[in-house]
Amino acid sequence: MSKSLLRILAFFGIYLLIFILLKPVFMAVYSSVMGDISAADRFNVIWHGLPMDCSMAGYFTIIPALLTIAGIWTDSRALRVANQVYIAFSAALISIVTVSDLALYGYWNFRLDTTPFFYFFSSPASALASVSTWTAILGFVVCILLAVALYFMIGLTAGRVRPSAAIRSIRSTIATVVLTAFLFIPIRGSFTVSTMNLSRSYFSANQRLNHAAINPLFSLMYSATHQSDFSSQFRYFDDDRARDIFAGLSSPSGILTDTVAPLFTIDKPDIYIIILESFSAHLMPSLGGEPIASGLDSIATNGLLFSNFYASGARTDRAIPAILSAFPAQPTTSLMKFAKKIEHAPSLPRVLRDSLGYDMAYYYGGDANFTNMLAYLVSSGFDRIVSDKDFPVSKRTSKWGAHDHIVFERVWDDIMADTTGNDRPVLRVVQTSSSHEPFEVPYSDPRFSDSPRKNAFAYADRSLTAFIDSLSASPLWERSVVIITPDHYGVYPEHLDDPLARHHVPLVITGGAVNREPAVIGTTGDQTAIASTLLSALGTDDSAFAFSHDLFDPSASDYAFFSEPGMAAFVTPTDTVAINLDTDTPVIYSGPASDAAADKCKAILQIIYDTLSEL
To answer: Is pLDDT above 70 for 110?
Structure first.
């Protein structure tokens, strides 16, 4: 065998070996959440991940193969430098992706995709705010050490095999070109119409094992190449069939019938929407959780608590459009990434401003540029956006900016100032941030001295309660409606495998202008329902919000839809379906009409991506 052919095989083999060796590393790092796995499970992780590893090894071998072809004809210094530069580049890339994936999986429970890069480039400081200083230093050191180790590992094996000019250069060139072309086979992963995709690594009922089998570099590449061609994604039905299923499910009623008592005591109440970072049902005793968010639990018992309510998505950039635009979270992308599309998305604040004359303001203690949020908020119609730059440096002591109690104090100060010169109804949206990694807050609850995570939730809860106490003690309470919901599913308890448990969050509606006795309401819904519920109560047309439905309308469909990377779910009072989107197989499939529920889940997903394409 000529050295040129041996060199290509050596590069392919060393990259494949690296990817194989990284799998036990992943399983060791996350052994506490992998469960009790056997030697056979570990072998299956490697075996079922092998096709994807071969695919990535093929991609990484293309450039060495091209340089090898050139090396048959010349042994120039430039070519040798190019070889070393490529080895260094590939070692650095593998190291960065591997370390990032290992660091983030514990937070997100899915292998690396483009999401963290979107976060980083929109606001580097905010993207790194959830990481403690020592964790960042450790990650940087590990990344450097791994990159150096990989550089020498590749350089001392494949890199030492060098082609040399030969008498039969044309024959060697042809053979090397043919072998390079054969890299297409592992890269594509199949001779059929089905090409390599994430589902190739799925083999177990234990999702952690499936995740362990996925190559994070392939996951990142796959995500990057599925960000814009929305009309070709999730094609389950022909267009007419998808629209028919969706139309039968989601048909906004606009205004409640006369048989239903008005939700509010006045026509245009002041509205406060409070979006709590990472809160979940598991923090509230009234929803079967622990007594951590005791203040919110008390607020809920004096208002309307929806007990079967679900977060639309997994991250804040998916949650805010779900709450304020009734646009469901997408499993592979985020509406907020696309500035031109968000300009054409429906907007609850814009309807309140243009149709009912509301005065608008949004409060957030962090960087409003994070995840393109500022562009979204401006397009949504907010007249005033208060963010970290509007607080003095002395009050920006959190890694995310201003702590929650500082933000709520600013909201209250502005409310007091507004009462003297503003006769318009107001919409105030407050987004908290302190109950987020790294859970460093200016508060210590002795009950949670051993858990910074619980303590951070208790602090955020205390800040919220102080604000509600101030508002309820003021004359403004009688004209106020307060809507409280988290942004996305919670980070407590950690590593919940049940999708319903992960996405189960509270929705609380309270205030002196609410025309209902305190109650726990079992209607099933998700965050996209907030828009229609509010607009219907205000007697305003909600037909622009195709994915929304009124939680108080007895004729409306009683359901929730939510998604996260690799999964979408549809829930009704009788049926629950969760679908693994990588394999198109059920994660949960229960209820007498589960087949119909699965069709509705898929139809919603298809219509979401059709709508994204058309915006």
So the answer is: yes
